[in-house]
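seq:
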Amino acid sequence: MKKLTYIFAGFIGVYVLMNIISLQGVVYTHTKEMNQYSEYRSKYARPVNEWEKPNIDNGIYYEEMQALPKTARDTKENPYTEAKMLLGKKLFFEPKLSKSGQIACASCHNPELAFGDSVRTSFGHDRQRGKRNAPNIMMSGFFDELFWDGRAKGLESQALMPIVNPIEMAHELVAMQNYIAKTQEYYPLFLLAFGVSESQYEILRIQSKDEAVRRKEFDRILLDLLKADRQNKNLDSILQSQALTKEQILAARKLITQENIAKAIATYERSIVPKNTRFNRFLNGDYKALSNQEIYGLHIFRTKGRCMNCHYGVALSDGKFHNIGLSFYGRKLEDLGRYEVTKDEKDLGAFKTPSLIAVSKSAPYMHNGIFPTLQGVIHMYNAGFPTQTIRQTSKAVPKTSELIQRLKLNKEEMEALEAFLLTL
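struct:
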């Protein structure tokens, strides 16, 4: 019995010793990480205007990193209103905008996937497959040109293009408009978003004739609708608590135009801005939001990684078009990008710089979704995007941007850069 007791005690002793060693290892690793990158914390744990300037190539105009906006971006042509945003959101998730009645904007731009769809290239009408990856549309309100090739000038122009694209939603605008015009659940929202004040007050049953009182009550009810929307409650049941008059129905139908549909969807898209990323908290003064390794990755992003030549400002994108060497010229996956819009040879193989906001959730990456992980993207940039030599048979040959250079980052630097990108 004593022998068994000694053996048991020995096992306990070994177990305790192993846990102590393991704990010491964790403490050592944490301490090493703290000491290893502590100098970078002192550089960046302060307001952005006190940071050292990033390494930027000559001739490149850049904007400093900025905290995410708290409100949606506004435009003179299509001023932001909460009512318009709510209507746009309903339209964004409406599959009946497509010919099949099965594909919504949200089918390829899923909120759970940073408004992408997690596949290399998206499936559309009749299971047709497009040749480009569905881009993350967060921050799209900060771009003047939309799509990978920039063929849309502004969100109002962009909003209707997927609806008529034969590979995507394959519908006709008139047929789509007619469906909305016959669907009564849309009437209250169109009246709220685009109707004159009197119609808006009537639909919300606001009785007062005092304009200030009516405006205040209107704003209060809209706030209630926003709260209900965030809680995934049915807005239709809230808005249809009172039957519409014949005059209101006629007024609503007149407001259901292609232009207003585009404006509403564009307004919702402008509102899609994340609020609580860890890097955003860091920029707002919560300097514990990033680890020392992640701060070191921020330093690499701004210096040796050369990232800020193209990824800067509030959206972490210059909004421009660059050929980084992925046109697959002369091969099966050939895509000439911006050139297909401009027919300008300098645009051969050029694609728009995407925003890096929520990049951790928007895999796969690049215009053709060729990289499943950020690690793969970083390794390819580090190698300078080596490409097959193209035989010079004419002037019309894609030329990789001079901004693409071998980075010569070591393993530690690449890991830190990836860690930082995961905080965006």
